[in-house]
Amino acid sequence: MKIARILHAGYAFESGGTQILFDPIFENPFSRNCHAFPDVRFDLARVRALRPHAVFISHFHDDHCSLDSLNLLDRATPIYLYCVFDELFAMIRALGFVNVLALELDAVVRVGAFEVIARRALEADVDSMFHVRAEGLNVLNVVDAWMDPETLEQLKAYAPWDMVLWPFQTMREVAVIAPSRAEPGPVRLPEEWPEQLRALAPRYVVPSSCQFNQEPWSWYNHAMFPVTYRQFAQEVRSWLPAAQVIRLNPSVAVELTADALAPSAPLPWVLPVGEQDLDFAYDPAVRPPPTADIARHFATLTAEQEALVLDYCRSGLLRRYQAMELPQDSYFCTPCVWQLSVYDHEGAVRQFRYRIHGDNIALVGDEEAPGWRTEIPAAKLYAGLELGESLTSMYMRIDGAPDDADIVDDPLIRTLFDNAICAYQAAQLRRLL
């Protein structure tokens, strides 16, 4: 069985003349501002010439399911997708794919030499894992998922696993969105990982899933990604002395047999750029720059785009907020003044204050000091409204939220992302069609 890394959680598997792709991304940057780490380019002519026997997509997040990447593939390629939203299946069909199939948990999908089984993840309404079988070998591609305890019991029956592709990087989304809430101290890997990996007893462990940074100037590059390849390898070796930790950079391929693991020819359509054995440079003492400085890195909005952003702040946000159902334990169930600060490309700010009480929201003047404060670059607010940009790349900043409040209860987060089903892919489809 040949296993090759594409990018992030993307892999190409080959066996017995059959090639299947998992979560293929052929873009850099992808998901708008995820920059490949280490850097790569793609030979798009060769990508278009690929004829994989099937594509498997683990979930709907835009760094795993991109219509721009799928658009490069032959429309006869079967697409197997795990997703609870019918809308995404319809989008892929609208792109021209004629064989778009829903993955069912624990059901065997046979493609040539391969058997692929979607396994239940901890958040079963979001993502899945892949159990891949061929040549008598068992490989577990955990993708981005957290392991479900019942699934772990189920997977123990196949131990020792020949290889596990393990999502080694934990992302500190809350810490970068609300820096005042960030917990100081040393980086620790999740406490459940040793038990889970010991139960699987893999021969080979690949640190998988997180191979990107943000823009070169971004402070996120020192705050979002706390786990290094080096630390992961050291700790896994201490938990599993008999296992080997194998790093697969983009394009790198290996040949897995029952007896050994050997290098194989790299993917010719994934082109490494520069040094590849890079590691993350996490700095727990990094200080976030002002949002005004961050906003200066982004392009000027057109007059029409700026008008759309301002209209949203003055009226659209209020309509969306009032149309949603507030959780009973929300911080905003009690009266609060919330301030939204929007920064343009020159760092100039427009501030909007709202009085919120439960499901009611109204613009107010500046007579009353705000409690909860939210900042965002105007370009990123526009991208969230029109381009499906994800929360972790919007450089949103929250301050003043008490420690017992849920950060995602923020009114801007809720109005942008509650019920925003596959917004990124929908924006891609509008552009592609």
From TrEMBL:
The lineage of its organism: Bacteria, Pseudomonadati, Pseudomonadota, Betaproteobacteria, Burkholderiales. SUPFAM superfamilies: Metallo-hydrolase/oxidoreductase (SSF56281). Keywords: Hydrolase. InterPro entries: RibonucZ/Hydroxyglut_hydro. Gene3D superfamilies: Ribonuclease Z/Hydroxyacylglutathione hydrolase-like. It holds the Pfam family Lactamase_B_3. This is MBL fold metallo-hydrolase. GO terms for molecular function: hydrolase activity. It comes from Duganella callida.
